[in-house]
Amino acid sequence: MLGTFMASLDSSIVNVSLPTMSREFHARIDDIQWVVTAYMLGFCVFMPLTNWLKDRIGFFRLYLMALIIFTTGSLCCGLSHSLDMLVVSRVLQSFGGGAINPTVLSILSTVFPKEERGKAIGWWGIGALLGPALGPTVGGALTQEFGWPSIFFVNVPVCAITIALSFVFLRFLSKAPKVRSAFDLGGFVSLTVFIVGIQYAIARTERSGAGSWEVIGCEVAALIALILFIRKERKAADPIFNLQLFKNKDFVRTQFLTCIRSAALFGGVFLLPFLYQISLGYSELQSGLLLLPQSVMTAIMTPIAGRMADKFGSRNVLLVAITLIAATTYIFAFFVHGTPIWIIIPVVMARGVGMGMLMTPLTTAMVNSVETSQVTMASSINSLTMQLSASLGIALLAVIHQDIQQKSLSRGAQLSEHLALRGGFLVSASIVVLAFIPAWGLPKKQATPPDGHLKAHLSGSTLSSG
User: Is there a common fold for 1-181 and 247-466?
Assistant: First the structure.
């Protein structure tokens, strides 16, 4: 729980500090976005290694290694004196954070018998939920009182306690047998080149231009890498991802939905602190508190949405969720300095309800779309889709924001920032609306999966929801 709590906390604690980092480093918004996207990219790159390392060095060593890397990365982030150093440190931190959750799920599945596994995962889920819920408020308070480095330093003592407790209580895991399985190096390298290439191309578009050799070169390299990856995975004996799943139309629809949801939602979350602090004039702590109702409503609605999906079908719940998120994102675009708090909070809460209604039915639809034996692989693909589309969405909205701001600077700094944020939220809302297309194609009512299918879902889907 402690390891998962710190990893999930760090995914949300940073956003509220981004405007402060931007001021201190004198960085544009398309530069500061790398603080968030570097963590997501590092997660995407390291994730395919986790299962292979688990077999190679065992649960105990992998969990300790993940915690130590995460702690070291957090310390380096707090000590960073430049944006470049902070971004590199975030990549290091993500290698540890990205390995924690899948390793913990494997440990729980191994240690606890089937009749106790649900209870254990339920307790573990508290740590997974508390991190995102408390992150914005804790981040705002720490940044306002002690400066942005404190949001990274807070990880160090908690991780040190977690490592110490692991030596006391988890050492027995070191006796588990090791498996020297082959690693798909060609698939891993080509996938990494694709992920980094496409991300860098989007991030450099505003500065270098869409037609520049730098951007075109990255796009060509990414396309070639993707083609090589597909060819390699189709022939590999132990592929990183089973591409046969993409012959399943319902699974493909859920991946389109995941892609749209992550690009729009994470992009919107990235812009919200700038809206609160720059346009609306709130402090870091106040911004964190304004984000708290959204997290609370998401936590409340997530289990309720699961029961609603069972009763009414995933499609119907998803359509309502998409409507709520699109509407609230559109409303954010028109918040200005002086907008009453009694208007802001209901909108934020409605957005939280929409997010809570979106996550569980979408995961359920993804799990129900594949066979029981394919759930773990499908969850891994879903997790990669979510992280990659989120990082691309943030980069895209950062580029759009910067382009609008530069073109409207003659109208004053405050107005240009407001227009840039408005444009970003309007684009984000438009992307969410696109989700109606794949959502409408999902089955109206899906049958409840058999017991074995549900247990596979429990062990495989938490990573994708996190």
Answer: yes
Contact between 241 and 374 under an 8 Å Cβ cutoff? The reply is: no
Burial of 414 (0-12, 13-18, 19+ CB in 10 A): exposed
Q: Residue 178: enclosing H or E segment and its boundaries?
A: none
For residue 406, what are its two tokens? 């530069």
**Tokens of residue 421, six digits:** 């944020």
State mean pLDDT over 3-23: 82
Residue 147: left if φ>0, alpha if ψ -120 to 50, beta else—which one? Answer: left
What is the sign of the dihedral through the CA atoms of 93, 375, 52 and 163? positive
1-181 belongs to CATH 2.160.10.10: no
What digits encode the pLDDT tens for the residues 228-239?
988 888 877 777
**R_g of the chain computed on alpha carbons:** 21
SS3 label, residue 27: coil
pLDDT digits (tens, 9 = 90+) for 317-342: 888 888 998 999 999 989 888 888 89
Of 210 and 103, the structure prediction assigns the larger pLDDT to 103
Beta carbons within 8 Å of 302's beta carbon, 6+ residues apart: 129, 356, 359, 360
Asked whether the CA dihedral 48, 84, 263, 135 is positive or negative, the reply is positive
277 closest CA partner among 427, 458, 148, 375 = 148
> Which of these, 255, 195, 316, lies nearest to 438 by C-alpha position?
255
Assigned token pair, 429: 């809302």
**CA 261, CA 268: separation in Å to the nearest integer?**
10
What residue segments make up the domains of the chain, in order of their start? 1-181, 247-466
- The pair of three-digit structure tokens given for residue 443, joined into one six-digit string: 């089955």
Count CB neighbours of 403 within 10 A.
Answer: 16
> pLDDT-derived band of residue 376, with 50, 70 and 90 as boundaries?
low
Given a contact cutoff of 8 angstroms between Cβ atoms, the answer to whether 100 and 67 are in contact is: yes
What was the pLDDT predicted at 85? Answer: 93
Q: How confident is the model over 275-303, as a mean pLDDT?
A: 83
The amino acid present at 194, given as its one-letter code, is: F
Decide if 207 contacts 92 (C-beta within 8 A): no
CB neighbours of residue 459 within 10 Å: 18
Q: Enumerate residues 6+ apart whose C-beta is below 8 A from 221.
A: 193, 197
Whether residue 428 has pLDDT greater than 80: yes
Task: Please identify which residue in the block is written with the tokens 């940073």.
Answer: 14
- Say how many residues make up the chain: 466
Q: Per the confidence metrics, is the pTM higher than 0.90?
A: no
Which CATH superfamily, name and number, covers 247-466? MFS general substrate transporter like domains (1.20.1250.20)
